[in-house]
Task: structure prediction
Amino acid sequence: MTRTGRKFEWSAAGVFAIGTLLLSGCAQPPASVNTVGPAERRAIPTPVADERLITDEVFAQAAVITGLIEGITPDGLRIVEAEVQNATRAHAPFKYRTAWFDERGLEVRAPTVVWRHVVLPPGAIRRVSAVAPTASAYDFRMEFYSDR
Amino acid sequence: MTRSAVILIASLVSLVPLGCQTAPVSNRPPSSTNRVGETQTLETRKLNQRDLEDFAAELAEGLIRSGRLVPFDDQGPPLVLVSRFINEGSRGTMHIDRNRVFARVLDALNRAGVATAYVDDDPAVEALRRDAAARGEPLPSPDYSVVLRLYEDRASVGRIDQFQYILQMQVAALDGPRAGSMVWSEEREVAKQAPRGGAVGL
Result:
């Protein structure tokens, strides 16, 4: 009786150990992007103060927009860049589009205003950008849409 | 169970279906056609025309951003000939309409005002060029040419097929000190994975 009980205890311990190992294997976090760059940056970006309208809280917390900067092309067209960080442990697929407006606030339609697809690896930081389609397009609005 | 507990449970249960209901009920018959928006189009197994047109627009924007299209005279923006679409893809990409891809590039460059872009497929313009050349006063020749190339890579592992497409845009100078050399190149790629024989589309 005792021997049988001991056998049972051993087999139970074995199952527990294997189970623990399997679980620890499953629980290992997925790969995530590490980044490195110079501590003192030469570039002096021009930040843009932004105003946000969040309708998808979950997506906003997953793909975090950490900054918005602007510039000018050699031909005088406005460039905008948003920095997006994937704050999750999974790939973050999303689409983005930039709508442009002229000085009277009217939308400037153009062939370059299309939904662009991005898949951001876990932890990655990426810039998404847009160039004004015409010299009269100045104001802009970037839209981000989760593609899960 | 008290009466108030029963009422509470009943009211919670009645709320559950409301929580699950995400869209208003449509009065259309189930078999009718729905008009969909840009973010609702089907993701096809292989490359679709829309993917390629959007890539062409992105590449044109990249070219505009680069500032490499500089004029060689004081006659305004440089003349850009969108000349060729070279399809190195498989039979599955033969449905691509190059004119629609060119249209995105032409439209983007012309609207931005950084170039006067055109294609050589207008018979009226061709006739004009011939007449002008015959008179000894040829129309201005292009300063740059744009060539688009499409590549396809295919891989399979187990029951998963992967289709990878690369659209490359190459710009060569036809005038100026760098005539004959490539002055700008950029590419966009898309990779699609699907279970073998299990996806919708091409």
